[in-house]
Q: What sequence folds into this?
């Protein structure tokens, strides 16, 4: 999917994300939220993801070591384990 995305399309999405501010909307999120960052992510650094988690009530922040921007591809088992752990803690 990523390799089929045009450079112009990718740049447009990145610009839209960059220019969006959901800080006020995030405070209305009322479901369990897990904000995950790869420690080696240069596009969305862990500090930014941690700051995001702080705008969501009761959100959790977790970092995945030695992982970049796509934990679902780079560390799928670690990502799945983190999600399962949160789910177990909530039930």
A:
């Amino acid at each position: 999917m990523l390799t089929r995305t045009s450079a112009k399309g990718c740049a447009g999405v990145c610009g839209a994300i960059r220019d969006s501010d959901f800080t006020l909307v995030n405070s209305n999120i009322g479901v369990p939220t897990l904000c995950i960052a790869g420690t080696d992510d240069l596009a969305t650094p862990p500090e930014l993801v941690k700051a995001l988690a702080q705008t969501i009530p009761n959100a959790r922040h977790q970092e995945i070591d030695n992982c970049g921007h796509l934990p679902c591809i780079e560390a799928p088992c670690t990502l799945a384990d983190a999600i399962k752990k949160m789910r177990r803690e909530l039930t």
About this structure: The CA atoms of residues 24 and 55 lie 8 Å apart. The chain has a mean pLDDT of 94. The chain is about 45% helix and 10% strand. The helical segments are 7-18, 23-26, 46-53, 71-74, 76-90.
